């Protein structure tokens, strides 16, 4: 089921700070690994199959747990809270473990923190408190999944939203960095539809199960480029933060 929350979160106009992140595309362009629509399509496909797949599966798991969180009275204050913090701690640590690049972990948490203010305004929920108790700078896929799940959408919607964001950001960055035809770039995005569908199905099936069973595909080139981008960003200003 797809509802308004997943559509708003996937919208490039959502004030979540995603526009300053290229998902490694800027570094790939600087190394001449991406120079046209064809090489961009290959980059996007590789990113979807690795970092995008991980993000989609964790967002789906977060949506599942947010939907099943049970409100109980707090013992002292009388406020209502959610007994789910332990779940968020496990999700947070497992996603950290699947993100070996410190630069990529920082980018994920930076985006999560940037989106938090808008999320709190639009979708206030005690679930966010439980998520932030696990880490005050939540990973972006976990924040997206928590909001979508608590909004009544299913894990598949969270997976689709997050998987799409993993490639739509770099695609948009390619237009700015290389001056590519936006119509051709969007056609390259649409061509990933079948692969995104497969990832969504996998993520939805795995969402209720143990977090340890979520996939952990490696992307060493993306990891290395993320680390290189951070070093270069310190030396001279880059257009994107990641």
TrEMBL record:
Lineage: superkingdom: Bacteria
Signal peptide per UniProt: none
The keyword Chaperone appears for this protein: yes
This protein's UniProt keywords: Chaperone, Nickel insertion
Tagged with keyword Chaperone: yes
PANTHER family: UREASE ACCESSORY PROTEIN F (PTHR33620)
Protein name: Urease accessory UreF family protein
């Amino acid at each position: 089921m797809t509802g308004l929350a997943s559509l708003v979160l996937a919208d490039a106009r959502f004030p979540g700070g995603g526009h300053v992140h290229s998902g490694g595309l800027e570094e790939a362009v600087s190394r001449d690994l991406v120079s046209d629509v064809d090489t961009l399509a290959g980059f996007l496909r590789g990113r979807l199959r690795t970092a995008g797949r991980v993000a989609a599966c964790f967002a789906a798991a977060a949506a599942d747990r947010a939907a099943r969180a049970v409100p109980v009275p707090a013992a002292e204050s009388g406020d209502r809270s959610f007994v789910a913090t332990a779940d968020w701690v496990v999700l947070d640590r497992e996603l950290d473990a699947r993100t070996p690049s410190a630069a990529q972990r920082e980018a994920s948490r930076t985006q999560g923190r940037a989106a938090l203010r808008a999320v709190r305004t639009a979708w206030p929920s005690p679930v966010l408190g439980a998520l932030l108790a696990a880490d005050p700078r939540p990973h972006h896929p976990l924040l997206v999944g928590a909001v979508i799940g608590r909004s009544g959408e299913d894990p598949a919607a969270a997976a689709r939203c997050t998987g799409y964001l993993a490639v739509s950001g770099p695609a948009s960055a390619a237009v700015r960095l290389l001056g590519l035809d936006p119509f051709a770039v969007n056609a390259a995005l649409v061509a990933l539809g079948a692969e995104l569908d497969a990832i969504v199905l996998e993520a939805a099936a795995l969402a209720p199960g143990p977090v340890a069973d979520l996939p952990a595909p490696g992307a060493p080139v993306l990891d290395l480029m993320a680390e290189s981008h951070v070093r270069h960003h310190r030396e001279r200003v880059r257009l994107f933060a990641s």
